[in-house]
Structure formats: C-alpha cells, structure tokens
Design goal:
This protein is an alpha+beta fold. Helices cover 35% and strands 24% of the residues. Strands 3, 5, 6, 8, 11 and 13 form a 6-stranded antiparallel sheet that branches. Strand 9 and strand 10 form a beta hairpin. The protein is globular, with a radius of gyration of 25 Å.
C-alpha cells in the first residue's frame, strides 16, 4: 500500500513518480555533453515486477512510464519485467524470477537480467550496423545517379570538404520539451520550435577545438553518490570529512557484507536529535540549487523518520541568510527501501567564490540515510 499523503490513485501515483524521476535523469544525461556531435547512449533497464501495491495495472504503470519516456527521447530501454511477466503472473508463488512478498529476488532473476541486457545490446549493434549499411548503399546509389552512373564515392574529395560533407549527414540532437501534463496538443509545435531555437543558441557557443571540448560544462560544483558495487562509501565519507564543521551521531553505514546489495551505503543518523553541518567555501560555480538523494524505508526502525535541511549563506555584513529550509520524510508504507531525490531551490544565488552552509537535523524518529548530493547552478 502507498502512504496516506500520496495520491489516492496508486496507479497514477506510481507512474507519475517514476516518470518525474526518470525524466529528470534522462534530460541531465542527454545534455551532459553539450558541445558533442551526439548525446551519450542512455540505457534504462526495467527490472521491476513488484510487489508495492495489489493492482497489477499499478505495478505495470512503472513500465508504462519508462516506455513512454524512451520513445519520447529516443533512448534505449530494456525490460526484464516484460521478458518474464507472463511466467510470473501465471504462478506468483514461484521464486525463480519473482518473490511475491519482496521486491528483491534471487540469483537466477539477476542472471536473467544480465542475459536480457546482453541480448538487447547485441540486437542494438546489429540494427545499427544494418542501418548504417543501408544509408551508405542509398548514398552510393544516389551519387551514381547524380553523375550519370559514375561512382563518385570513390573519387578523390578535395581537402577540407570531406569533413564538411560528413557533418552534413549528421542530424543534430534536439532535446524535446519535457513530457508533462502542461504539454498540450495546441502548444506542442511551439514547444518543439522553442527547443530547436535553444539548441541553435547552445550550438552557437560551441566550436570543434579540443580546448572547447575539454571545458567543464557540468552545472555542479559538488557531486557525490554512493553506489553498491561501484563505491563502498569512500567518496561520500571523504566529502563529509572534508566539509563537515559539526557532527553529532552521523556516520557512514556499510552493511553490504551482512545483508547484500539491497543494503544501501549512506551517511546515516544513528540516534534521535542527530545533527551535522557542512560548510562549502570558495565555490567554483554560481549555486542556485541543491539536490539530495536519500533512502525511504519502512518498519519500526524507520518510524517517524524525518530530517530538516537548512541551507544558508553569509552576507557581506557577516549575517546568516537562510536560502532554503525543508523537512524530508525518510519513511513510507511501502514494503521496500527506495532511493528518492529532492531538489531545494535557493531563494538567492550564491555567487562563485562564495560560501554556503548545509545543516541537517534529525527532528523525529531514530534514523535517516543520505545517499548523495549535488550542489549546482540549477
């Protein structure tokens, strides 16, 4: 079941929450290399079968959201859930690919996910090669027709023109407008035209020199994320140690050895009223937003889990100015531990070279877990 403060319709609730978080990730990934010819290859793997709610339609709404976004942004999506869904629903008591009482499953399911991704990668490569072959064949045929049957593809190209010709064949990537309730049929054309204009403005700022391509285009001054298998908490602990000015009962928690990968590594409050403060000085970029990644869980341990985030800066006359203050719940009524994110928009910009403080207080419950954070221009 979903928590009472969530939307009444669980089906819509799951789809909109997944769509919002996944779309934020996709847009960030696709624009992470703004001066490159092509965007990064983004692969979204759907391995979700439930159980988080009783309705099968609700469980499948996760897949619906991912499918919509992959088609909208023309990215790659692979669904393990679609591969085994028929087998699972015909016998929900089986434990090979799914566990009726737990979102986590055994090694055969994980192995099947790997096979699914592997097959999809091979199919992607095969289709890409086939498309490229067909494009070159069509281009060669067109060249012959243009000069009376002479194959100009084998003629010598004047120096400097070859690169120009190849660039003409590349279709620029234009990030489409966000897929939200506000995008209506009557304004879709205008939104896409605005997206094209934004692409032209951004492209005008780029050149093809190696120096330009090496410039740091990241909007963030500070980024850190703990991830099982990729990071054992060292980068998060290093950042906390570097910037922490006050700490009472917060520490890195790593229980991977005891409970497996489902135990997410993070910066954890270990007692009621735990508090810590981070101080960032001489920031390398203008800062307007901070995003945190945190854990939402269930059960007695997480009862009433709630933390207060207070972001501030120091004015020219040495007064503290609060830029954002918000309470974040670390508990829900879903029998799963999920990674969530929240963005705090600051009431004023912290200029490059300035200072910013982040104070986090556990105001109810016994624990709260932070998995990562980003401090960025937007």
């Amino acid at each position: 079941s979903l928590p009472e403060h969530d939307a009444v319709d669980a089906v819509i609730n799951v789809m909109e929450r997944v769509q919002k978080s996944a779309q934020t990730f996709l847009r960030a990934a696709l624009t992470s290399k703004p001066c490159r010819t092509a965007p990064p290859l983004v692969l979204y793997v759907d391995d979700y079968l439930g159980p988080l709610q009783p309705s099968i339609l609700g469980e499948m709404s996760y897949n619906t959201a991912i499918t919509q976004l992959s088609k909208w942004y023309d990215t790659m999506a692979v669904s393990y859930a679609d591969v085994v869904r028929d087998i699972v629903y015909k016998d929900t008591g089986g434990r090979l690919f799914f566990r009726e009482w737990d979102v986590h499953y055994g090694h055969w399911a994980h192995q099947t996910i790997a096979w699914t991704v592997g097959f999809a990668a091979i199919e992607l490569t095969s289709r890409f090669c086939d498309d490229e072959y067909q494009k070159r064949f069509d281009r060669k045929s067109q060249n012959k027709n243009d000069v009376g049957g002479v194959d100009i593809a084998n003629l010598v190209t004047p120096k400097g023109q070859e690169q120009h010709q190849s660039s003409q064949l590349v279709h620029p990537f234009v990030l489409p407008p966000p897929l939200t309730r506000d995008l209506l049929l009557k304004n879709a054309t205008a939104e896409f035209e605005a997206a094209k204009e934004q692409y032209r403005l951004n492209d005008a700022k780029c050149n093809t020199s190696d120096e330009q391509l090496s410039i740091d285009h990241s909007p963030c001054a500070i980024t850190v994320m703990s991830s099982p298998g990729l990071d054992t908490g060292g980068s998060l602990n290093k950042m906390m140690s570097k910037y922490t000015t006050n700490n009472k009962n917060w520490a890195i928690e790593n229980n991977i050895k005891n409970g497996g990968w489902k135990n997410k590594i993070g910066w954890v409050a270990n007692n009621p009223n735990a508090t810590f403060t981070l101080a960032f000085t001489d920031l390398s970029k203008d800062i307007k937003a901070m995003t945190i990644f945190y854990l939402k869980s269930y059960g007695e341990k997480w009862k009433n889990s709630r933390a207060r985030f207070t972001i501030s800066t120091t004015t020219n006359d040495n007064r503290e100015k609060i830029l954002s203050k918000e309470d974040v719940w670390g508990v829900h009524n879903i029998t799963a531990s999920t990674t969530e994110s929240i963005k705090f928009l600051l009431s004023d910009t912290v200029a490059s070279g300035g200072t910013m403080k982040v104070k986090v207080d556990l105001i109810s419950g016994n624990t709260f877990k932070i998995l990562g954070m980003m401090i960025c221009r937007y």
